[in-house]
Amino acid sequence: MTPFRAPGTPEYVAAGAAFQLAAPVDPAGAFTARSVADVTDAVAAARRAGRPLRVHTTGHALGRAAPLTGSLLVRPIIDAPVEVDPGTRTARVPAGKTWADVLTETLPHGLTGLHGSSGTVGVIGYLLGGGLSFYGRRFGLAANAVRSFTVVRADGAVVEADATRHPELFWALRGGGGGFGVVVAAEIDLVPMHAVVTGMAVWDAADAPRIAPAWQRWARTAPPEITTSLRMLSLPPLPTLPPHLAGRRVLALDGAVTATTQADLPAAVRVADELLSPLTALAAPVSNTWAPAAPAAVPLVHLDPPRPVPFRSGSALVDELDEAGWAAVCNAGPSLLALEFRQLGGAFAAPAAGGGALDRFAAPLLHYAVGLAGDDTARDLRAVRAAIEPYRTGYTAPNFVEHADAPQRTFDDDVRDRVDRVRRAADPDGLFRGDHTAPVRG
User: Fold this and answer.
1) Can you give the residue ranges of the FAD-binding PCMH-type domain (predicted)?
2) Per residue in 276-292, is it b (16+ CB within 10 Å) or e — as a string?
3) 323-330 vs 375-388: helix axis angle to the nearest 10?
4) How far apart are CA 321 and CA 331, in angstroms?
């Protein structure tokens, strides 16, 4: 007997639901696992069927690995609560939970996880890919805050992987690229967060070639309490968007400054002012909402889409651009929804004690471009890649790679070889081989 449902059934459709609508979802069978026992049943059934087993929860990056054709798909949505321990500042997060689910439980205690810019992203997949947060220049990659993973291995065993139990597996899971098993829960460290200074400043697109180099100069010596994102936006004329964003091409600067205690808030306000004052002196923004706020505001400020969309993207870790580079990039990709440069440095660049396969990013900037799937987006992504080519480091951030044919080099060859050894030990018969894509230099 198999738990997997056949194509066309309601259960199959529900298990294959994904945020990335441009990726085909056509496994031979699909199953939503509501318990750890369900996951072990799925692993056993896949082994009996002799088919690869694929794993996804929210499906934001469903297209990152090989196509699902011929595989079996398990979607672990574990029916268990997020458990927060305010005393130890930790949370146990079952597979299937989003960051919005976690923040609902942690923020009443004055605590937060190192979540990304969207509350709809699944926690487990985000952690496995490193995790790049607007708190990251202060606290580092989110994967460094993982205390343990609960994993169903290819042989059906349920193991706890942490610094002392299955330490090599624990090391590889944090950024190693998948194919190790089904993670059904994670225990993570939380950080105190009293308030933030957050918001978005918006300029006309014509001001971008002047604003962007000045932002980059500021970013070199910015304090670690602040993490920002500079983006060219071309959003559709939706009635839910303010007039200065709807149907216009603009330059937007958003992010967050941390204030872990009430006493930190005045300093956080000064940090935001030190960022914005030189930029607003160069050109007056058409809107500026940066202000003190509750931490719950951070997953909303980036305006990530709240519902599934068909999209195509490109990304890379890049070195600093010169003025000619900024001019070229800011004028490329007019049809793209967003052309982003995320500020790194600070704790993002610091090696983590006991860190995993991916514990830091050496590059100063992360580049990410995204648009609705179609010919115009494909053309503009090629143009943006050509403009950014001289500045590419050859490395990528896993959570921003969303297509199997995109460059996916995360770490050096010696780390890759160690990851491969752990993967072969964890899955000698290649049950999860489809969840791993061989790295291609960026």
Assistant:
1) 23-193
2) beebeeebebbebebeb
3) 180
4) 14
User: Domains in the chain and their CATH numbers?
Assistant: 10-76 (3.30.43.10), 83-192 (3.30.465.10), 195-400 (3.40.462.20)
Give burial (CB, 10 Å; 0-12/13-18/19+) of 107.
middle
Name the token pair of 233.
């936006």
- Alpha carbons within 13 angstroms on the beta-carbon side of residue 159 total 20
Q: What is the number of other CB atoms lying within 10 angstroms of the CB of residue 254?
A: 22
Bridge-based pairing of strands 72-76 and 53-55 is parallel
Q: In sequence order, what are the residues at sequence separation of 6 or more whose Cβ sits closer than 8 angstroms to the Cβ of residue 48?
A: 2
pLDDT at 385 over 70: yes
58, 101 Cβ separation under 8 angstroms: no
pLDDT, tens digit (0-9, with 9 covering 90-100), for 25-45: 999 999 999 999 999 999 999
Predicted confidence (pLDDT) per residue in 415-441, tens digit:
999 999 999 999 999 999 988 876 555
Output phi, psi for 183, to 5 deg. -80, 120
Tokens of 60: 């934001």
Which residues pair with residue 74 across a beta bridge? Answer: 31, 55
Residue 332 phi/psi, 5-degree rounding, is -90, 160
